[in-house]
């Protein structure tokens, strides 16, 4: 889905002290089961939150890009419930968990922006769940487009779209080709 961090929350988080951390592609930002000490906000790059199923298959829970917050719910957890992996070279702002928690209590504008961000994340997650419940690639693509003002992403982002709607790139390309043929 589209990154949904508001400018207001980003500005408010930038007021908090943080350390810059860099991660090479393929490296872990954090691992499932480790203590939550910081909140990571992506500055540059992309990261995925991944939980491994009992059969070993990875399940991507979040695709985070610049401005996104990784595992925002972890601010209220003792331990991470999944892994975070840098997909490309990634730079984050790491905000200490106690600093953020104290700021949420102390600063009403930050708490309100945080709550609004979490509400939008819940809405986006529900939309994605609806899309993934549909049977065909055509239905999933129609539903995704309806949730995104009817516009498809640029051609270079189709692989990411395929992953988002839970299909293979090839199946998405076939559906897009069918639609072009019908419109011609």
Task: Give start-end ranges of low-pLDDT stretches.
Answer: none
**Number of distinct helices:** 6
SSE topology string: HEEEEEEEEHHHHH
Mean pLDDT score: 91
Structural class: alpha+beta
> How big a fraction of the residues is strand?
15-25%
Q: Tell me the CATH architecture of the largest domain.
A: Sandwich
CATH homologous superfamily label of the largest domain = Jelly Rolls
Helices and strands in order:
Layout: H1 7-14, E1 19-23, E2 28-30, E3 38-44, E4 47-52, E5 58-64, E6 69-70, E7 83-86, E8 90-96, H2 97-106, H3 108-133, H4 137-147, H5 158-164, H6 169-183
Antiparallel strand pairs: 1-8, 2-7, 3-6, 3-8, 4-5, 4-7
Q: How would you portray this structure in words?
A:
This protein is of the alpha+beta class and 184 residues long. It has 2 domains: 7-125, Jelly Rolls (Sandwich); 134-183. The chain contains 6 helices and 8 strands; from the N terminus they run αββββββββααααα. The strands form 2 sheets. The protein has a 4-stranded antiparallel sheet with strand order 1-8-3-6. A 4-stranded antiparallel sheet has the order 2-7-4-5, with no helix packed on it. A hairpin with a 5-residue loop joins strand 4 (47-52) and strand 5. Helix 1 (7-14) packs across helix 3 (108-133) and helix 3 runs antiparallel to helix 4. It is globular, with a radius of gyration of 18 Å. The mean pLDDT is 91.
């Amino acid at each position: 889905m589209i990154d949904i961090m508001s400018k207001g929350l980003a500005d408010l988080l930038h007021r908090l002290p943080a350390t810059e951390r860099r991660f090479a592609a393929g490296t872990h930002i954090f691992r499932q089961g480790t203590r939550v000490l910081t909140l990571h906000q992506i500055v540059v790059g992309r990261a995925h939150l991944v939980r491994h199923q009992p059969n070993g298959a990875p399940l991507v829970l979040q695709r985070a890009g610049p401005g996104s917050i990784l595992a925002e719910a972890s601010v209220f957890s003792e331990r991470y419930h999944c892994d975070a992996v840098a997909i490309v070279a990634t730079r984050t702002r790491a905000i200490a968990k106690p600093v953020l928690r104290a700021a949420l209590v102390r600063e009403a504008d930050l708490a309100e922006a945080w709550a609004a961000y979490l509400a939008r994340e819940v809405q986006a997650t529900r939309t994605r769940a609806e899309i993934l419940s549909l049977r065909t690639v055509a239905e999933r693509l129609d539903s995704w487009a309806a949730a995104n003002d009817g516009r498809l992403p640029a051609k270079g982002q189709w692989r990411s779209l395929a992953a988002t709607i839970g299909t293979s790139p090839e199946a998405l390309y076939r559906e897009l080709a069918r639609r072009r043929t019908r419109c011609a």
